[in-house]
Design brief:
Chain A is an alpha+beta fold and 366 residues long. In chain A, 24% of the residues lie in helices and 36% in strands. A two-stranded antiparallel ribbon of chain B has the order 1-2. The relative contact order of chain B is 0.12. The chains are: A alpha+beta (366), B mainly alpha (291). Chains A and B meet through β6 of A and α8 and α9 of B. The complex binds adenosine-5'-triphosphate and magnesium ion. Chain A: One of its GO terms (molecular function) is ATP hydrolysis activity.
């Protein structure tokens, strides 16, 4: 058998609801064994895409390929997918054992094997003693684990999860996130995970797909997407960014000056200039946590820029503080770790911005 | 102080229940007491009721085969009516619950529409459909399939037909409500695990709609058992149901004591049925699984 690379492939997939196009020309690959996350604001088409892959919604145009087989017209029950819903969707009238055994029963697995597989699935989700209970006798987190066990026990080709953690409270969520990732690694099943929680997306994914209005804005490794956003939308959506329009001057050596609209001048790198094809009109993106605030005027290194400013407001976040700063007539935001005490409101400070932290985007459009 | 609060808390449910208790007491319990008392009186040859404690009515009602046969016939008619309602009613209920049409409310209003027309008129409409000069005979005669009109009316089948017509909306609404409460994700989950549409229905939808089906069936059975208008209009002389006997005794013969005893027999029987039903079919047990 030829080496297969992709568990799922979407080729120019379109979904229309009447006049409205929910998903526009989606091209996407989900590599085998990988954890892919769809991230985007509400209504951007994450669920729709997932449901098309699952076979719960039909595809208007394009091809859906699962394990080298075009499955557009294959009904859901023949696709061999594991599906986990936000509200768990456990069968309330069946015991936990019967819930997990459900898919195996329809795969003609014999009784002894079913018992054994259900047991190991329960062990995998660390709930070995609940087989005889009914779903309403479990907590939300436990129900979600059972839903996961039910989906993976059938050894699906792809595991599809639509915001599976969003019904859980914050602590449980983090715990489940680690757990889910562990289970996915252990099984090596290709997984598509839908969320609009960016920390979840960044922490879990091998590949992050940022969506907006039915298109893929950017995809790549989370670190890559985070550090090198390809659009202002991505820069803004992931974390907190300062985005300013500006013009690019001739480079000198490894760095080049960028003139921001307000009059501030920053340094950026050759690499960034290449990214925008040496265009004149650009936008500069500086992530809030990639600026260092200090009372010291001297730049930390000679390719960084220091800008004097004044702190307007401080958001105290525990280990971090978020500062709203006015500098040379512009509003900035900066997130810095706190060294003993945060800077006070009204304090005069300097912002230090290393050249490599000034990311460039093409100007104007979008 | 604390004891006072505890006592107030103990009484609170009764205080809150009092309006319904008073209503039920005045409109149901007290009139029923009258019926119980009546059933021990005796109607004399002169036509006057003799007050006292006589067991004659009860003896007659409980020993006469005639009453027993009619009772069994009543239960049989009610049983078949219920089964037909359940089978026939499930389909529209399922359709309304799952339709993608935006006009769900409209469909529900259509379901309620029959209630706006008198039950008697609705029942009588069957005479215009099935009668010797009714629509079906007219059509068959006109087409030439038959030479003389068929006698389709005034038998047990038409009684059941009339009852199904009358009771179907109750079944549909009960089933609809329980179908509507089923999370659509459950069938999708079942299908993702390998069920085809029908298997998902059998595994998930049908068992989860069982409480509605059970409640609708109970309602249909009880209402069918207590009816007297349908057999009066659509039944023949031999198709009397138990409530017809009560009607006969009280309205025609003006024999209130006997009518009271008869109606109590039906009441006790159906009451016992409701109790057994909820107990052993575990209707409320199943309802719990939805929480
Ligand atoms: N059945 C439908 N009919 C018409 N429009 C629909 C239908 N389902 C979804 N849409 C539209 O498609 C768009 C994408 O919806 P989708 O549910 O995929 O969003 P999402 O990214 O999952 O959002 P969320 O984060 O809120 O879950 C939305 O604008 C939605 O209104
Ligand atoms: Mg969604």
């Amino acid at each position: 058998m030829a080496e297969r690379q992709h568990a799922v492939e979407l080729r120019n997939v379109v979904k229309r609801y009447g006049e409205f196009t929910a998903v526009k020309k989606m091209d996407l690959t989900v590599p085998e064994n990988s954890f892919v996350t769809f991230l985007g604001p509400s209504g951007c088409g994450k669920t729709t895409t997932l449901r098309m892959i699952a076979g719960l919604t039909d595809i208007t145009e394009g091809d859906l390929v699962i394990r080298d087989r075009r499955v557009n017209d294959l009904p859901i029950h023949k696709r061999n997918l594991g599906l986990v819903f936000q509200n768990y969707a456990l069968f309330p009238h069946k015991t936990i054992f019967d819930n997990i055994a459900f898919g195996l029963k329809y795969r003609n697995v014999n009784k002894a094997d079913i018992a054994q597989k259900v047991k190991s699935a329960l062990d995998l989700v660390q709930l070995p003693h609940v087989a005889d209970r009914y779903p309403n006798q479990l907590s939300g987190g436990q129900q979600q684990r059972i839903a996961l066990a039910r989906a993976i026990v059938i050894e699906p080709d792809v595991l599809l999860l639509d915001e599976p953690l969003s019904a859980l409270d914050a602590n449980l969520r983090e715990e489940m996130r680690v757990e889910l990732k562990r289970i996915q690694r252990e099984l090596g099943v290709a997984t598509i995970f839908v969320t609009h929680d960016q920390s979840e997306a960044l922490a879990m994914s091998d590949k992050l797909v940022v969506m907006k209005d039915g298109i893929v804005e950017q995809e790549g490794q989370p670190e890559d997407v985070y550090n090198n956003p390809s659009s202002a939308f991505v820069a803004d959506f992931l974390g907190h960014s300062n985005i300013f329009a500006g013009t690019l001057a001739e480079p000198s050596g490894e760095t080049a000056p960028v003139q921001l609209e307000g009059g501030t001048t920053l340094k950026t790198t050759i690499h960034q200039i290449e990214r925008v094809n040496r265009q004149q009109n650009i936008r500069a993106v500086i992530r809030a946590e990639k600026i260092m605030v200090s009372t010291n005027q001297n730049p930390t290194s000679n390719d960084s820029t220091s800008i004097p400013g004044r702190i307007k407001t401080v958001d105290y976040l525990g280990q971090m503080a978020r500062y709203f700063i006015t500098a040379e007539g512009q509003d900035w935001q900066v997130i810095n770790p706190i060294d003993q005490h945060p800077f006070g409101e009204g304090a005069d400070i300097f912002m230090h911005i290393p050249a490599r932290n000034c990311v460039l985007l093409p100007g104007h459009h979008d | 102080m604390a004891a006072g609060v505890a006592r107030a808390q103990k009484h609170a449910p009764w205080i809150l229940l009092s309006p319904s208790l008073v209503t039920i007491g005045f409109l149901l319990i007290i009139p029923m007491m009258f019926i119980v008392v009546y059933s021990f009186w005796l109607r004399t040859a002169t036509g006057a009721d003799q007050v006292g404690f006589y067991l004659d009515n009860w003896q007659e009602v409980l020993s006469d085969r005639f009453y027993r046969d009619i009772l069994l016939q009543t239960l049989k008619i009610a049983f078949f009516t219920t089964i037909i309602c359940a089978v026939v009613g499930y389909i529209p209920a399922y359709f309304v619950a799952n339709t993608k049409m935006r006009s769900k409310t409209f469909l529900l209003i259509m379901l309620m529409l029959p209630f706006w027309i008198s039950y008697i008129i609705r029942t009588m409409s069957w005479i215009n459909i099935l009668g010797t000069s009714g629509a079906i005979n007219g059509l068959l005669l006109w087409v030439g399939i038959i030479d003389s009109p068929l006698n389709m009316l005034y038998n047990q089948t038409t009684v059941i037909l009339g009852l199904v017509h009358y009771l179907l909306p109750f079944m549909i609404l009960n089933v609809y409500v329980s179908l509507e409460g089923i999370d659509k994700n459950l069938t999708e989950a079942a299908e993702s695990l390998g069920c085809n549409g029908f298997q998902a229905f059998r595994e998930v939808t049908l068992p989860l709609s069982f409480p509605g089906l059970a409640a609708g069936s109970l309602l249909c059975f009880v209402l069918a058992s207590g009816t007297y208008i349908t057999p009066l209009i659509l039944g023949g002389p031999r198709d009397a149901m138990f409530a017809n006997l009560v009607f006969e005794a009280i309205i025609t013969q003006l024999n209130w004591p006997l009518g009271s005893a008869l109606s109590l027999v039906l009441l006790v029987l159906l009451g016992a049925l409701v109790v057994i039903y909820t107990r052993y079919l575990g209707v409320d047990q199943i309802a719990k699984s939805f929480r």
